[in-house]
Specification:
The chain is of the alpha/beta class. The protein contains twelve helices and 13 strands. This is Lead, cadmium, zinc and mercury transporting ATPase.
């Protein structure tokens, strides 16, 4: 049977916007010593701004942005939202055909009869497009039109106001290792990891590779503690399901993510993890 005190703990957590799906997860929260964060939407706001449009000749900047916006118009990825916002005009959906969103890569689609690719270098490699980009500090979205490289759009995200405090306080309550996983570039990943003072970062990972990396981190663990993964649910439901403790953040994540998670944080504040662990510790001191 479940000790009664757990219900108090789960109820208290719910009042703080933290939904714990069972007393076993509250108990597990007590023993978390490794936290693995997804980047976009979890440590960063997930609200990108277009900061640069770089064309390679043939197309104007306006046209490049227009093709990108049409290509992204069915995607709910934060990258898509930012490109559509920068474009700011109506999209005639009848000009879009054969839409294909490839997880961790980007979009493959026909726009106005042209074959458009909009995504990262993995997508370009997969489609045999030669690209050439200087080191950029933002996330780069490459565009190809009818099999030719056309240029790239740089978009930048910001670290959440709350993230640094969360990292500091998590260390303060005894979490030993803080890791970030991201599908974004090494440069972007390392910059954010350094700013936040994380212990490790693994970048350019596809959703499957995030699962593999998580399994490796679990294997490498020297201690008996639990590994908690926290993500915003976009492309990370498999990792949420695989972690000792999967936490979906933002409340508005996909149904698949909420389903896969053990704990759901209704706000988008990573510092709620600190509250969750504190509530778990307090509950244990009452129950045992
Ligand atoms: P993260 O690990 O940062 O949450 P994702 O796994 O969602 O990122 O995506 C990884 C990478 O895949 C992105 O940084 C981007 O390069 C590319 N990508 C994913 N979706 C899109 C899209 N709709 N348009 C362009 N690029 C995309
Ligand atoms: Mg993500």
């Amino acid at each position: 049977s479940i000790p009664l005190g757990f219900f108090g703990g789960i109820g208290g957590a719910a009042k703080s916007g933290i939904l714990v799906k069972g007393s076993n997860f509250l108990e597990a929260l007590n023993n978390v010593d490794t936290i693995v964060f997804d980047k976009t939407g979890t440590l960063t706001k997930g609200v990108f701004k277009v900061t640069k449009i770089h064309t390679l000749g043939r197309e104007s900047e306006e046209n490049l942005l227009e093709y990108a916006a049409f290509a992204e118009s069915y995607s709910s990825h934060p990258i898509a939202t930012s490109i559509l916002k920068a474009y700011g005009k109506e999209i005639n959906k009848s000009e879009i055909e054969n839409y294909d969103e490839i997880s961790g890569h980007g979009i493959k689609v026909s726009v106005k009869g042209k074959r458009i690719l909009a995504g990262n270098k993995k997508l370009m490699n997969k489609e045999n497009i030669t690209y050439n980009v200087m080191d950029e500090t933002g996330t780069v979205v490459h565009i190809a039109i009818d099999g030719n490289y056309a240029g790239y759009i740089v978009i930048s995200d910001e670290i959440k106001d709350d993230a640094e405090k969360a990292v500091r306080e998590l260390r303060g309550i005894g979490v030993k290792k803080l890791v970030m996983l991201t599908g974004d570039s090494k440069l972007v990943g390392e910059t954010i990891s350094r700013q936040l003072g994380l212990d490790e970062v693994h970048a350019e990972l596809l959703p499957d590779q995030k699962v593999e990396k998580l399994e490796l981190l679990e294997k490498q663990k020297q201690t008996k503690g639990k590994l908690l993964f926290v993500g915003d649910g976009i492309n990370d439901a498999p990792v949420l399901a695989r972690a000792d403790l999967g936490v979906a953040m933002g409340g508005l994540g996909s149904d698949a993510a909420i389903e896969a998670a053990d704990i759901v944080i209704m706000t988008d504040e990573p510092s709620k993890l600190v509250n969750a662990i504190k509530i778990a510790k307090r509950t244990r001191s009452i129950v045992w």
